[in-house]
Amino acid sequence: MSGFGALPDPATLLGHDEAVAAFEAILDGGASDDHIAAFLIALSDRGETMVEIAAAAQAMRDRMIPINAPANAIDVCGTGGDGHHTLNVSTAVAIVVAACEVPVAKHGNRAASSKSGAADTLEALGLDMERAGAMAEAQLADLGICFLFAANHHPAMKRIQPIRKQIGQRTIFNLMGPLANPARVSRQLIGIARPAYVAVYAEALHQLGTDHSRVISGDEGLDELSLAGGNEVAVITREGVRMQRSTAADAGLPSHPITAIRGGDAHANAAALRALLQGDHGAYRDAVLYNAAEALVVAGAAETLIDGVENAAEAIDKGLANALLNCWIAYK
């Protein structure tokens, strides 16, 4: 018996059918825990390909519990794991973009490597996560925003979680969250913490199919657009993938070091997010405006980053984003 049992040896690149079969076996219990662990470690050490990422995502999509969503809904989501422990930028962006009348189906989880994930911070703000999960479809239809707690929609991952914990290192499943949104959105802004992997990840998303999405990564390994320096950006449409570079100056914003948006625990991050929505200025606001602008361009709600920043700033300054958060928390 090989060290991978029913799974193929990742020493060689997997073809589409072979990769699909492997991830079906992993998610459906067709391989042992030890073989899954060995396979995932070997795949990570070798470096996952576009074919393998797309196959894993498709296997997860085929097994998820979906929800209905407006045709123009988007997701703003990062893979996490960048190690910078920043404030919750994508969570704030989701609220601001939804306040700009773009429906946002926010897919997320609790913190894995950071001090506070999206779910942790929203809960500290007062959002009842159990109710939000049960009423996600209704909230998206009524308010234009919902939180799709990953554990509620990906039951096949329940068996994999202990294996991932035991491994204790990044695996292909760290890349899966944004590619398996239960609302089946066709427009996304996805942050990944590996700039060199943006093109590979973007090609996988293109293979899976998307109307208009962007994969972004700050040069420092940030899983969102960074104000500190340059950013890798992949623009994905039905036609293909186009790579470009972006800086804060492209959005008419100043640069800030990453340390200026360093976060804390869930309560600290929640307080910062609430202050932001109530009008606080500074690096956190600029980071949110930058990423929200990119999301609004993806959604077709802004022509340029400059326009997107204006729209996002207006949603904050008029109190629309703060009011939306209040309505979301109070929703019954």
Q: What labels would you give this structure?
A:
amino-acid biosynthesis, five-stranded mixed β-sheet, 7 strands, Anthranilate phosphoribosyltransferase, glycosyltransferase, alpha/beta, aromatic amino acid biosynthesis, Anthranilate_Pribosyl_Tfrase, 332 residues, Pyrimidine Nucleoside Phosphorylase, Chain A, domain 2
Structure overview:
The longest helix has 17 residues, at 283-299. This protein starts with 15 loop residues before the first helix and ends with a helix. The chain is 45% helix and 12% strand. It has a five-stranded mixed sheet, with helices on both faces. It has a two-stranded parallel sheet with strand order 2-3. The protein has a single domain (74-151, 170-330), classed as Pyrimidine Nucleoside Phosphorylase, Chain A, domain 2. The protein has helices at 16-28, 33-46, 50-63, 89-99, 118-125, 129-134, 136-143, 150-153, 160-167, 198-208, 266-277, 283-299, 305-317, 320-330; strands at 74-78, 104-108, 145-149, 187-191, 212-218, 231-237, 240-246. Strand 6 and strand 7 form a beta hairpin. It has 332 residues and is of the alpha/beta class. It is globular, with a radius of gyration of 19 Å. The chain contains 14 helices and seven strands. GO terms for molecular function: anthranilate phosphoribosyltransferase activity; magnesium ion binding.
User: What's the order of the H and E elements?
Assistant: HHHEHEHHHEHHEHEEEHHHH
The biggest sheet, with number of strands, parallel, antiparallel or mixed sense and barrel status, is: 5 strands, mixed
What best-fitting shape do the alpha-carbon axes yield? globular
How many domain units?
A: 1
Unreliably modeled segments: none
> Total number of helical segments?
14
User: What is the beta-strand fraction?
Assistant: 5-15%
CATH class assignment: Alpha Beta
Distance between the termini: 55 Å
Number of strands: 7
In round numbers, the mean pLDDT is: 94
Structural class from helices and strands?
A: alpha/beta
